[in-house]
Amino acid sequence: xxxxxxxxxxxxxxxxxxxxxxxxxxxxxxxxxxxxxxxxxxxxxxxxxxxxxxxxxxxxxxxxxxxxxxxxxxxxxxxxxxxxxxxxxxxxxxxxxxxxxxxxxxxxxxxxxxxxxxxxxxxxxxxxxxxxxxxxxxxxxxxxxxxxxxxxxxxxxxxxxxxxxxxxxxxxxxxxxxxx
Length: 180
Prior knowledge:
The structure is a single chain. Among the domains are: 16-54, no CATH class; 57-141, no CATH class. The model is unreliable at 1-7 and 147-159 (pLDDT under 50). Helix content is 33%, strand content 4%. It has helices at residues 3-14, 46-56, 58-68, 80-84, 87-90, 129-140, 169-172, and strands at 101-104, 124-127. The chain is mainly alpha-helical.
Protein backbone atom coordinates (compact mmCIF):
# COMPACT_ATOMS: atom_id res chain seq x y z
CA UNK A 1 0.00 0.00 0.00
CA UNK A 2 1.43 3.40 -0.94
CA UNK A 3 1.62 6.36 1.42
CA UNK A 4 -1.20 8.11 -0.48
CA UNK A 5 -3.50 5.03 -0.21
CA UNK A 6 -2.77 4.74 3.51
CA UNK A 7 -3.63 8.41 4.04
CA UNK A 8 -6.91 7.96 2.13
CA UNK A 9 -7.85 4.93 4.26
CA UNK A 10 -7.06 6.80 7.47
CA UNK A 11 -9.12 9.79 6.36
CA UNK A 12 -12.09 7.50 5.63
CA UNK A 13 -12.31 6.08 9.14
CA UNK A 14 -11.30 9.32 10.88
CA UNK A 15 -14.35 10.99 9.34
CA UNK A 16 -16.58 8.40 11.08
CA UNK A 17 -15.39 9.38 14.58
CA UNK A 18 -17.52 12.35 15.58
CA UNK A 19 -17.45 12.20 19.39
CA UNK A 20 -13.96 13.79 19.59
CA UNK A 21 -11.91 16.00 17.30
CA UNK A 22 -9.22 13.62 16.07
CA UNK A 23 -7.36 16.29 14.10
CA UNK A 24 -5.96 17.94 17.24
CA UNK A 25 -2.81 16.64 18.91
CA UNK A 26 -4.73 15.56 22.00
CA UNK A 27 -5.50 12.13 23.44
CA UNK A 28 -8.49 10.75 21.51
CA UNK A 29 -10.25 9.42 24.63
CA UNK A 30 -13.09 11.88 25.34
CA UNK A 31 -12.57 11.86 29.11
CA UNK A 32 -8.81 12.53 28.89
CA UNK A 33 -7.91 15.00 26.10
CA UNK A 34 -4.34 15.48 27.43
CA UNK A 35 -1.94 17.27 25.08
CA UNK A 36 0.41 14.77 23.45
CA UNK A 37 4.15 15.18 23.44
CA UNK A 38 7.10 13.27 22.03
CA UNK A 39 6.39 10.31 19.77
CA UNK A 40 2.75 9.82 20.78
CA UNK A 41 0.36 10.95 18.05
CA UNK A 42 -3.08 9.71 19.13
CA UNK A 43 -3.23 8.51 22.76
CA UNK A 44 -1.42 9.42 25.96
CA UNK A 45 -1.11 5.75 27.00
CA UNK A 46 -1.62 2.22 25.72
CA UNK A 47 -4.59 1.84 28.08
CA UNK A 48 -6.31 4.80 26.42
CA UNK A 49 -5.61 3.31 22.98
CA UNK A 50 -7.40 0.11 24.10
CA UNK A 51 -10.27 2.16 25.56
CA UNK A 52 -10.72 4.05 22.28
CA UNK A 53 -10.70 0.75 20.35
CA UNK A 54 -13.31 -0.74 22.69
CA UNK A 55 -15.62 2.22 21.98
CA UNK A 56 -15.11 2.60 18.23
CA UNK A 57 -13.71 -0.51 16.49
CA UNK A 58 -16.49 -3.02 15.75
CA UNK A 59 -14.63 -6.31 16.42
CA UNK A 60 -13.31 -5.04 19.77
CA UNK A 61 -16.59 -3.35 20.79
CA UNK A 62 -18.53 -6.54 19.98
CA UNK A 63 -16.21 -8.68 22.11
CA UNK A 64 -16.35 -6.18 25.01
CA UNK A 65 -20.17 -6.06 24.84
CA UNK A 66 -20.47 -9.86 25.02
CA UNK A 67 -18.07 -10.00 27.94
CA UNK A 68 -19.98 -7.19 29.73
CA UNK A 69 -23.26 -9.10 29.31
CA UNK A 70 -21.59 -12.24 30.73
CA UNK A 71 -22.34 -14.16 27.54
CA UNK A 72 -26.13 -14.07 27.97
CA UNK A 73 -29.02 -12.38 26.14
CA UNK A 74 -29.79 -9.06 27.81
CA UNK A 75 -33.52 -9.35 27.08
CA UNK A 76 -34.50 -12.94 27.85
CA UNK A 77 -31.43 -14.22 29.72
CA UNK A 78 -30.76 -17.06 27.24
CA UNK A 79 -27.26 -18.46 27.80
CA UNK A 80 -26.06 -20.58 24.85
CA UNK A 81 -23.11 -22.05 26.76
CA UNK A 82 -25.53 -23.81 29.15
CA UNK A 83 -27.40 -25.34 26.18
CA UNK A 84 -24.22 -26.48 24.40
CA UNK A 85 -23.19 -28.55 27.43
CA UNK A 86 -26.26 -30.79 27.10
CA UNK A 87 -26.25 -32.61 23.72
CA UNK A 88 -29.96 -33.46 23.83
CA UNK A 89 -30.94 -29.81 24.39
CA UNK A 90 -28.39 -28.59 21.88
CA UNK A 91 -29.92 -30.80 19.19
CA UNK A 92 -33.21 -28.86 19.46
CA UNK A 93 -31.52 -25.62 18.39
CA UNK A 94 -30.09 -24.61 15.03
CA UNK A 95 -26.41 -23.75 15.04
CA UNK A 96 -27.00 -20.01 14.50
CA UNK A 97 -29.43 -19.92 17.45
CA UNK A 98 -26.61 -20.90 19.82
CA UNK A 99 -24.57 -17.77 19.06
CA UNK A 100 -25.04 -14.41 20.71
CA UNK A 101 -25.43 -11.42 18.43
CA UNK A 102 -24.60 -7.80 19.22
CA UNK A 103 -27.30 -5.34 18.18
CA UNK A 104 -26.90 -1.61 17.58
CA UNK A 105 -29.75 0.08 19.48
CA UNK A 106 -29.47 3.09 17.17
CA UNK A 107 -29.13 1.32 13.83
CA UNK A 108 -26.17 1.94 11.53
CA UNK A 109 -28.48 2.52 8.54
CA UNK A 110 -25.72 2.12 5.98
CA UNK A 111 -22.99 3.98 7.83
CA UNK A 112 -19.44 2.71 8.07
CA UNK A 113 -19.42 -0.32 10.42
CA UNK A 114 -15.77 -1.00 11.26
CA UNK A 115 -15.03 2.34 12.94
CA UNK A 116 -17.98 4.36 14.19
CA UNK A 117 -19.26 6.28 17.18
CA UNK A 118 -22.34 4.03 16.93
CA UNK A 119 -20.13 1.26 18.37
CA UNK A 120 -20.09 2.91 21.81
CA UNK A 121 -20.99 0.55 24.67
CA UNK A 122 -24.23 2.40 25.48
CA UNK A 123 -25.48 1.79 21.92
CA UNK A 124 -24.79 -1.97 21.92
CA UNK A 125 -26.88 -4.76 23.41
CA UNK A 126 -26.20 -8.50 23.39
CA UNK A 127 -29.13 -10.59 22.16
CA UNK A 128 -29.89 -14.17 21.28
CA UNK A 129 -30.90 -14.80 17.67
CA UNK A 130 -34.65 -14.73 18.38
CA UNK A 131 -34.52 -11.47 20.33
CA UNK A 132 -32.28 -9.93 17.64
CA UNK A 133 -34.82 -10.80 14.94
CA UNK A 134 -37.59 -9.22 17.04
CA UNK A 135 -35.50 -6.08 17.66
CA UNK A 136 -34.62 -5.78 13.98
CA UNK A 137 -38.25 -6.16 12.90
CA UNK A 138 -39.37 -3.61 15.50
CA UNK A 139 -36.72 -1.19 14.25
CA UNK A 140 -37.91 -1.59 10.68
CA UNK A 141 -41.53 -0.89 11.60
CA UNK A 142 -42.82 2.63 11.23
CA UNK A 143 -43.59 4.75 14.30
CA UNK A 144 -47.32 4.05 13.89
CA UNK A 145 -46.64 0.32 14.18
CA UNK A 146 -47.27 -0.48 10.52
CA UNK A 147 -44.63 -2.27 8.51
CA UNK A 148 -42.93 -0.29 5.78
CA UNK A 149 -43.72 -1.11 2.17
CA UNK A 150 -41.00 -3.52 0.98
CA UNK A 151 -41.46 -2.49 -2.66
CA UNK A 152 -40.42 1.13 -1.99
CA UNK A 153 -36.80 1.99 -2.66
CA UNK A 154 -35.66 -0.91 -4.79
CA UNK A 155 -36.34 -4.58 -5.22
CA UNK A 156 -39.28 -6.01 -3.38
CA UNK A 157 -37.84 -7.76 -0.35
CA UNK A 158 -41.21 -8.86 0.95
CA UNK A 159 -42.16 -10.82 -2.14
CA UNK A 160 -41.66 -14.56 -1.99
CA UNK A 161 -38.59 -15.89 -3.75
CA UNK A 162 -39.00 -18.32 -6.58
CA UNK A 163 -38.62 -21.91 -5.54
CA UNK A 164 -35.17 -23.42 -5.94
CA UNK A 165 -36.66 -26.88 -6.38
CA UNK A 166 -35.95 -28.42 -9.74
CA UNK A 167 -39.20 -29.02 -11.60
CA UNK A 168 -40.11 -32.55 -12.53
CA UNK A 169 -39.91 -33.53 -16.20
CA UNK A 170 -43.70 -33.89 -16.34
CA UNK A 171 -44.06 -30.27 -15.24
CA UNK A 172 -41.86 -29.00 -18.07
CA UNK A 173 -43.04 -31.16 -20.98
CA UNK A 174 -46.58 -32.27 -21.71
CA UNK A 175 -46.32 -36.01 -21.37
CA UNK A 176 -49.38 -38.03 -22.05
CA UNK A 177 -49.77 -41.35 -20.26
CA UNK A 178 -48.88 -44.35 -22.39
CA UNK A 179 -51.87 -46.16 -23.97
CA UNK A 180 -51.92 -49.89 -24.43
